[in-house]
Design goal:
The complex is a heterodimer of chains A (about 110) and B (about 110). Chain A is mainly beta and about 110 residues long. Chain A is built from no helices and 11 strands. The termini of chain A are far apart. In chain B, strand 4 and strand 5 form a beta hairpin. The termini of chain B are far apart. Helices cover about 0% and strands about 50% of the residues of chain B. Chains A and B meet through strand 5, strand 9 and strand 10 of A and strand 5 of B.
Chain lengths: ~110, ~110
């Protein structure tokens, strides 16, 4: 089983649509969770962290369910500029330290069309 | 603030040849990472340095890959000899010292092994 699993898509949605991405992780000791965005042929960039209480940043909402080991990202009112690959990322701290290894999912491709 | 610099941006070599990649992290960032991203997959951590010491190299194929970070600043990643399956983008990332987890990625080096 992969450490971090995502539906690779692609998701093709019209502008203004709401789209949700899901991600599951296998290591219950994982401590921090993130969504990164990667544009075509560019480097990944941090989109947002994911907190247990759920968090929102404008049109983006992230949720974490530790019991189910499940992370989600919701994008409302999609824009053309949201077209990218969305990477689910899980951090496992190394025994009592804050050093952590990031494990990336394979990414979900989103295309927003006019 | 200057970002993470990498060179070269592109490299084409034949199998069994050697290749080296260079990374200059953001000034003051103590932690440096090398990732391999194969087409259609998320980045996979190869090696993590804290200053000039190795924190995690568990996924580095040590029979052919090596990395060093002299003086705790720049880093080089070497492949010798290269295989076809090494074709990928090699991403360097850096983050500030302990406790701050956002990683800033460089533009990557796209390696093609023929």
């Amino acid at each position: 089983r992969k450490e971090v699993e995502q539906d690779p898509g692609p998701f093709n949605v019209p502008e203004g649509a709401t789209v949700a991405f899901n991600c599951t992780y296998s290591n219950s000791a994982s401590q921090s969770f993130f969504w990164y965005r990667q544009d075509c042929r560019k480097e990944p960039k941090l989109l947002m962290s994911v907190y247990s209480s759920g968090n929102e940043d404008g049109r983006f909402t992230a949720q974490l369910n530790r019991a189910s080991q499940y992370i989600s990202l919701l994008i409302r009112d999609s824009k053309l500029s949201d077209s990218a690959t969305y990477l689910c990322v899980v951090k496992l701290n190394a025994g009592g330290t804050s050093y952590g290894k990031l494990t990336f999912g394979q990414g979900t491709i989103l295309t927003v069309h006019p | 603030e200057a970002g993470v610099a990498q060179s070269p941006r592109y490299k084409i070599i034949e199998k069994r040849q050697s290749v080296a990649f260079w990374c200059n992290p953001i000034s003051g960032h103590a932690t440096l990472y090398w990732y391999q991203q194969i087409l259609g997959q998320g980045p996979k951590l190869l090696i993590q340095f804290q200053n000039n010491g190795v924190v995690d190299d568990s996924q580095l194929p040590k029979d052919r890959f090596s990395a060093e970070r002299l003086k705790g600043v720049d880093s080089t990643l070497k492949i010798q000899p290269a295989k076809l399956e090494d074709s990928a983008v090699y991403l360097c990332a850096s983050s500030p010292l302990t406790g701050f987890w956002e990683q800033y990625f460089g533009p990557g080096t796209r390696l093609t092994v023929t």
